[in-house]
Amino acid sequence: MDVANKSTMSEFVLLGLSNSWELQMFFFTVFSLFYVATIVGNSLIVITVIVDPHLHSPMYFLLTNLSIIDMSLASFATPKMITDYLTGHKTISFNGCLTQIFFLHLFTGTEIILLMAMSFDRYIAICKPLHYASIISPHVCVALVVASWIVGIMHSMSQVVFALTLPFCGPNEVDSFFCDLPVVFQLACVDTYVLGLFMISTSGIIALSCFIVLFDSYVIVLVTVKHHSSRGSSRALSTCTAHFIVVFLFFGPCIFIYMWPLSSFLIDKILSVFYTIFTPILNPVIYTLRNQEVKTAMRKLKNRFLNFNNAMPAHYFSSYLLVLLNF
């Protein structure tokens, strides 16, 4: 099937976000800055959690994995789009298009399950605090992360297999800056209505159902927190609010794109930019600005780095004097 598809459609043309050279340069600058900020911000969270022993807890273990997924989600298509603005090369091979579809659904599917795991962690911590240590053990955390990746792989494989069955024999212009099924399947030489129903059933309904479950769990958590007026409850409220903001920003565009796969391309482009470029950088911003523990740990890490840099010249100078004296 792969060979048959490639014989009729060897590559696709990514139309991008605009044909205007001025807008392309604007997007190049903005998206480059956002991409660098995403990698630096999420890397800083990962390093901070690893270095600071006070953050070696289930919640921050899951947050670290979320940052890794966000960096991956920002990297599956953004670097190519940035380089395409410079080179003017906007084509992508058939296999390259399938690769983008695979990694997009891998990272989004994994992040959906991971966000549900983070919701479960906060639910147990706030609603069943006495049983938290026995329920959310390190082994359970690892199992949740592994399960999220397994689900992500299974989901992405189903999307790729579906794409391989599509016959492409007509236009090859993808009205987006990366390949995804809602825009690619509309180029297939079959009835797009049936394909749209498949998209809704395999991605749209799943995303909507997971969002409803997450929304209900956070409502329960917030109601529980509201009945406790303490400093710990205030911190829990801040943490859960940050989690819910991340959930809403991630699920909102996904639900719209996959529940209405035949909607306006302009809206799809805006939402695609949002959850592939903007959301990955918003996650570290939200968690660091609303989490006092992470901000404190980052200050300590910065001070250790500055102290290390200040100590280095003195260390090298003393070593140089010892070498001269020995000589």
Automatic annotation (TrEMBL):
Compartments (UniProt record): Cell membrane; Membrane
A cellular-component GO term for this protein: plasma membrane
Record Pfam families: 7tm_4
Family matches, as InterPro entries: GPCR_Rhodpsn, GPCR_Rhodpsn_7TM, Olfact_rcpt, Olfactory_Receptors
Domain of life: Eukaryota
UniProt keyword Coiled coil, yes or no: no
PROSITE patterns: G_PROTEIN_RECEP_F1_1 (PS00237), G_PROTEIN_RECEP_F1_2 (PS50262)
GO molecular function: G protein-coupled receptor activity; olfactory receptor activity
Keywords of this entry: Cell membrane, Disulfide bond, G-protein coupled receptor, Membrane, Olfaction, Receptor, Sensory transduction, Transducer, Transmembrane, Transmembrane helix
CDD domains xrefs: 7tmA_OR4-like (cd15226)
Membrane topology reported for the UniProt record: Multi-pass membrane protein
Broad class of where this protein is predominantly found: membrane
Transmembrane segment boundaries: 25-47, 59-78, 98-118, 130-151, 193-215, 236-258, 270-289
Domain G-protein coupled receptors family 1 profile: 41-287
Family membership: Belongs to the G-protein coupled receptor 1 family.
Protein name: Olfactory receptor
Gene: LOC116538779
